[in-house]
Design goal:
The chain has about 675 residues and is mainly beta. The protein has helices at about 45-55, 185-190, 230-235, 505-510, 555-560, 585-590, and strands at about 15-20, 25-35, 70-75, 85-90, 95, 100-105, 125, 130-135, 245-250, 250-255, 285, 290, 370-375, 380, 395-405, 410-415, 430-435, 440-445, 450, 460, 460-465, 465, 530, 535, 545, 550, 565, 575-580, 595-605, 615, 630, 635-640, 645-650, 660. The strands form 14 sheets. Strands 25-27-29-33-34-31 form a 6-stranded mixed beta sheet. The protein has a 4-stranded mixed beta sheet with strand order 26-28-30-32, with no helix packed on it. Strands 1-2 form a two-stranded antiparallel ribbon.
Length: about 675
């Protein structure tokens, strides 16, 4: 029992107060009377007060309205008779209450975003943030081929599993399919297996399939287990030898042999008695070393002849050549050095080259023939050729000659120089030499736009066949390629000093000159004018933004259109984020220089019930200075029914450091 007094607590005019312990039991109970209601005390109405309250009468509601506050709004129909109230909210997305009103919940803070943007896989929730991500195989969960060792917070398996384990720790009992041991020897003992070192077979061991011990025959070399009877029979019979030496039982014989005796020729240097070498290869015979040729060679000595070499000798010559030596003993003369001959030498053919010696002993001079001849003396004669002796070549002709293989001129003639006179010869005044249609130099007069005097001075009288008159000097430098086009007589007055600019380089004019903009006497209503001409700026179609997302714009869109309009009528809050490309792409596309300025125009159309806007981002997720941009205003956002011109100024064109300032 507890200390509470058993009984009934609470009536129509009193309420009970109880105390409960940790086990849910009431340990004490009391009764508190409900006070009578008054102007300062909440309580029960007395009978007289109730009567007064019910006699207050009745009334009529004359009007009902709803005030939009705390995220709620609504409408009332039949406000003065039978009101019908419709409650709505201006909040878009998930609702969040704060005890006073409602507001839009923030993804990742107030609730976890959906999984539509996640890849396919197992979803994992982060405890601290509630964010959903895709679980990583191998660390958040185990793949079919993974290892549980790398998993964290993975439960311990206490139940039976199926499959093949890559690695099992601990000892598996025999009853559970294991060996009950941790080593191979212990496992064989535990399972009752025989030792592998010296196994002892008990019972009747079975031979390999297909073998029967009792049917093995002599000569059986299969892998079957041999019986003792088979081994005994095999050892009792000698194997018969085959080949050059054969045997039957223990008796051997040689199939074929030459001579008699008991020694086979197997020594390293055997002594043979009257051997026939046949095709044998010998490296030496009686201490004479023989070198084997690559393919074949023949040494022939005639019958009963002797070849003796007293010194080392190498004979070289042409195959098939026969050399005949003197009939008696003598020395052979050499041809590669000086040689002295004794006795009278007779040569049957002409000697080529020089012969030296004592001319006094020469009894008869040899008569030479050919191009150089001699007759009985040492005086020689050079044969004449067919050329006519004389001089060839002059100021108006060139020599033409023929040379034979011995370097002698065999014929010569003069060839006149065709065409005009050579340098120093006559040429008509003010004429020049020009190659004509026959590829020959010809004297012609210089004509056309340029003429030449006999002093070499040229005069430009026309350009393109049109007369040109210069009152002063015209000086050019560098590459000068200019085309002047006119349809009639035109006078061009050039400035006395300065630099002429082309239409493709107007900057050279505007840098150092003054130009009046606007036509005299006009309000300049037709656009900017230079004198009486307008300058037109053509732009591509505007970039229409209709989605609530980031849009990465291109350099071409900025330079060619430069107009961005948000007129989304489908979304209540279409906030388009224009992400600028890197400054390097804009500078490269425009060929920009430091100081160049370009603009873009941003406009947001007013649509009833919508709240559209366009925000300018220098990089993904960044409205401030980044990505090479320096933004004067850290947040450039154009809201509904507003327009804005944004100025861009190039501040750096160095490759890798391109920069643009935004104003």
């Amino acid at each position: 029992n507890t200390a509470v007094t058993a009984g009934t607590y609470g009536t129509a005019t009193s309420v009970p107060s109880v105390t409960v312990d940790s086990k849910g039991r009431i340990t004490s109970a009391t009764v508190n009377a409900i006070p009578t209601a008054s102007g300062s005390t909440a309580g029960l109405l007395s009978a007289s007060d109730y009567t007064a309250f019910t006699n207050k009468g009745s009334g009529t509601v004359t009007g009902v309205s709803i005030s939009s506050a705390n995220g709620f709004a609504g409408t009332v129909s039949n406000a003065n008779t039978s009101p019908a109230i419709s409650i709505s909210t201006s909040v878009t997305g998930m609702l969040k209450g704060n005890g006073t009103g409602i507001s839009a919940a923030t993804a990742g803070t107030d609730y976890s975003a959906g999984t539509a943007s996640l890849a396919t896989g197992i979803v994992k929730s982060t405890t601290s943030t509630g964010a959903l991500t895709i679980a990583v195989a191998g660390s958040d969960y185990l793949t079919p081929t993974g290892s549980a060792a790398t998993l964290t917070n993975f439960p311990t398996l206490n139940q039976n599993t199926t499959g093949t384990a890559a690695n099992v720790s601990g000892t598996v009992a025999i009853a559970n399919g294991g060996t009950g041991a941790t080593t191979a020897a212990a496992a064989r003992t535990s399972l009752g297996a025989a030792s592998l070192d010296s196994p002892t077979f008990t019972g009747t061991p079975t031979l390999p399939t297909g073998t029967i011990a009792t049917t093995q025959t002599a000569g059986n070399n299969s892998t079957a287990i041999a019986t003792t009877a088979f081994v005994a029979a095999a050892n009792g019979t000698n194997a018969n030898l085959t080949g050059p030496i054969t045997s039957i039982g223990n008796a051997t014989s040689v199939a074929s042999q030459t001579g008699t005796g008991s020694k086979f020729v197997m020594d390293t240097s055997p002594t043979l008695v009257t051997p026939t070498l046949g095709v044998a290869t010998a490296t030496s015979v009686n201490k004479v070393t023989l070198t084997a040729p690559a393919t074949a060679a023949t040494l022939t000595i005639a019958n009963n002849k002797t070849l003796t070499a007293n010194n080392s000798l190498i004979l070289a010559g042409t195959d098939g050549t026969t050399m005949t030596f003197p009939g008696s003993s003598a020395s052979v003369a050499r041809t590669d050095a000086a040689q002295t001959f004794t006795g009278v030498q007779t040569f049957s053919s002409t000697i080529a080259g020089n012969i030296t010696g004592n001319a006094a002993t020469v009894t008869t001079n040899a008569n030479m023939s050919g191009d150089v001849t001699s007759s009985g003396s040492n005086v020689t004669t050079l044969a004449a050729t067919t050329v006519t002796a004389g001089s060839y070549g002059s100021a108006t002709s060139v020599p033409t000659f023929t040379v034979d293989s011995k370097g002698r001129i065999t014929s010569a003639s003069n060839t006149s120089i065709s065409g005009v006179s050579a340098v120093g010869s006559s040429l008509a005044s003010s004429k020049i030499l020009v190659g004509n249609a026959s590829d020959l130099a010809a004297a012609v007069a210089m004509s056309g736009d340029v003429t030449i005097s006999n002093t070499g001075a040229t005069t430009v009288g026309k350009i393109g066949g049109k007369d040109v008159s210069l009152a002063g000097n015209l000086t050019t430098s560098g590459a000068f390629a200019t085309t002047l086009t006119t349809t009639a007589a035109t006078s061009v007055t050039l400035p006395t000093t300065g630099t002429l600019a082309t239409t493709t380089d107007v900057a050279n004019v505007l840098d150092d000159a003054t130009m009046t903009i606007g036509k005299s006497g006009s309000s300049n209503g037709d656009g900017v004018r230079f004198a009486n001409k307008r300058i037109l700026f053509n732009k591509s179609d505007p970039i229409i933004c209709t989605t609530d997302a980031e849009k990465t714009t291109t350099a071409a869109e900025i330079l060619e259109s430069g107009i961005y309009i948000n007129n989304n009528s489908a979304d209540n809050d279409a906030r388009t984020k224009i992400v600028l490309p890197a400054p390097s792409t804009i500078i490269a596309a425009a060929g920009a220089k430091v100081g160049d300025v370009f603009t873009i125009f941003i406009s947001v159309v007013a649509i009833s019930g919508k709240s559209n806007s366009i925000a300018l981002y220098t990089s993904t997720g960044n409205q401030g200075s980044s990505n090479g941009y320096s933004m004067l205003h850290s947040n450039i956002t154009v809201g509904e029914s507003a327009s804005r011109v944004v100025y861009f100024r190039v501040t750096n064109v160095t490759s890798g450091s391109e920069a643009i300032s935004i104003y």
